[in-house]
Protein 1
Amino acid sequence: MFHLWRMVSLRGLAAAGKTYNNCLAIRRGVEFLHNSQGDDTGWGESWLSNPKEKYIPLEGNRLNLVQTAWALEGLLHSGQAKRDPTPLHKAEKLLINSQMEDGDFPQQEVTGVFKKNGMLHYADYRNIFPLWALAEYVRWVPLP
């Protein structure tokens, strides 16, 4: 969506050698993610954020697993595990507990918007991004 998808750019900044300590954009991205993490430990952004060009949470502050995965990846690549892994643990637990018995993740709200008002359904997003984020979590977060 408009804001949460941008958090994937934290990965690109990190690949370019930027860190939380030397990059204002990373610090701002991390601050946004911390401020928008829902009570249920995940993230959820309405498609309305795109045409209005401002962050709008999902109605009822619901979460979206794909967007939670995007946010988790952004935090991981910003070095959150070294600062405070608590939000990472919460998001990881949410993703694991949301996986269904057949291995899939449930289909939720649309996560793609084209030209600010055309909503797109990417059927594979619901599985690809949560699994990718969980793999990155295992890679970046030391186990107790």
Note: Residues 41 and 90 are 6 Å apart (CA to CA).
Protein 2
Amino acid sequence: MKAVFVVFAILATVLGICSALEFDLVATTEIGGGRRCLSQWLPMDTHVRVKAKVLPGFPGQKVNMEIHDDSQHSNQYGARNQVDDATFRFDTQAHANVIVCFQNVLEANMPNDGRSRTIQFKMESGAMAEDFHKIQQEEKLKPMEMELRRLAMTLDDVQDELQYLKQRESTLRDANERMNSRVKTFSFVSIAVLVGVAVYQVFYLRRFFQQKKLI
């Protein structure tokens, strides 16, 4: 039993890896300038947690933040001005890239001397976005039970993503088969047209030479 738990714990650790980013964003007075966007593709109905922290810097800078996706509906998931320490939680509304954009705006009458703010960013999705500490307290779970719950939710996320990829592969395969069928039909039509034109040219030239009494 202990060995099985160790394997589960290692698998949960591997599946639960998430990356955090830290970068500097230069302030600017230009419209749309001083902007940096980060994105991650996520399936629909995925729970997401986005954390952003702006470290102290030179005065006269204001970091704004917005979250949306690139689906046809351009779903908006959140926005905030003058971000210091913000956390957003939401469920995705479409299979699309979730895009988080930051803009560092230089306040009026401040010199454009290249000053910047450091931003710490982290996006978690699926099981990693859940508050397991809260779940453990509410359901009074033991540590082993909590790790098993975390692993089960992570495996559910993997299964859901594999199911979506399977559906996507099936859709692309059907589209490819339809395209192949159209190409085959077009090829047959092209051959028929070429043969028809060749036969017409033969009869036309034969009649022309007969009229000219050359044959």
Note: The chain has a mean pLDDT of 82.
Protein 3
Amino acid sequence: MERAFTPLECLLPAGNLKFCLLILNQPFNKGHFHCLWSRAALRACADGGANLLYHITEGSQESFLPDYISGDFDSIQPEVKEYYKVKGCELIETMDQDLTDFTKCLQILQKKIEKKGLQVDVIVALGGLGGRFDQTMASVETLFHATNITPSPVIVIQECSLIYLLQPGKHKLHVDTGLEGPWCGLIPIGNPCESVTTTGLRWNLILPKM
């Protein structure tokens, strides 16, 4: 079965994707933020992501209240935490140190999606690809955990980068939104990928193992 997907459709003002938004603790594009926030079915912050939300919406924070903020709260600034608490935002403390705040936030999000009976095409995480390399790799790890958490595809966007985990099988990625750059990369993670064939790229791959 071929899986067809347009990764950047979520950034199209007239896009039809139904999605939820997770804000992570890394600087992100303000234009991307406003486009995604205005159309998201649910909006959440993973710990220090609330700091970024608070500061990027300075002067109009009351118009940008997340549905919940979760994490072990070691990164969120005390005044930011207190502001959202006073405004009635749900604060969910997750002390489990075996999983990242991103992964735990995703677990909570999926439960809320199910409870509300939402139809979701994709979950978009904003941030998570800058700063420390170990945190970037933790975002990649969460994409693997996500396959056991949610049936929805999960993408991570920051500045000019987007990452998406391709499951075994055949995929058709539409890259005709006008927002794509001139490059892409295919990276095997954890294990070799067997029988990799691509079409539509400048340099296509026909590999028994990658």
Note: The chain has a mean pLDDT of 93.
Protein 4
Amino acid sequence: MQVVEISRGSSPAATIAAMMPVATVMPDDTPMFDPNLLHELDWSQNTATFSPAISPLDPGDGLVMRPLCTADLNRGFFKVLGQLTAAGVVSPEQFIKTFEHMKRSGDYYVTVVEDTNVGQIVATATLVIEHKFTHSCAKRGRVEDVVVSDECRGKQLGKLLMSTLMLLSKRLNCYKITLECLPKNVAFYKKFGYSVSEENYMVQKFFN
């Protein structure tokens, strides 16, 4: 508990204010990164085909593609992530703390698609930028946590997110972009120009 010293002669209002708990940060619509990075992508460089045609500016009826914001905690963001992997139990304080860390670093581009008809997140993917000393201090893009909610599969949102993050990595001057996937998903990612690396992906987990 926080102890507050109140001096003699303080007004009743000041005394009450001093005894109130410190306000916590509330979720809001502040984006993790500049939305213009998505809006200003040169979609003419996209190599994937879409039928019907969709784009970052027009992902479909009632859908909006944008950066993650903390208010998405209450829009089902973790429900969607849970369809990909174990999301765990995350408190609002943990979520906001991690969000702010990612936002301050400037190297995390968590992108979501919201169905504005129901106010829910229906798809998400993340581009992480790694800074290297190799390749003349180049940057490498890494795609992670690509998932579309069950009810929105078949609407090309996975393709749209992949194409968008590929173009975004180019705009951010990455020398390459990589991802990890299950063997059954290799054919899907090859559509975007990815190839199977000769290197083996290895992992050592300390907890789930």
Note: The first strand starts at residue 63 and ends at 67.
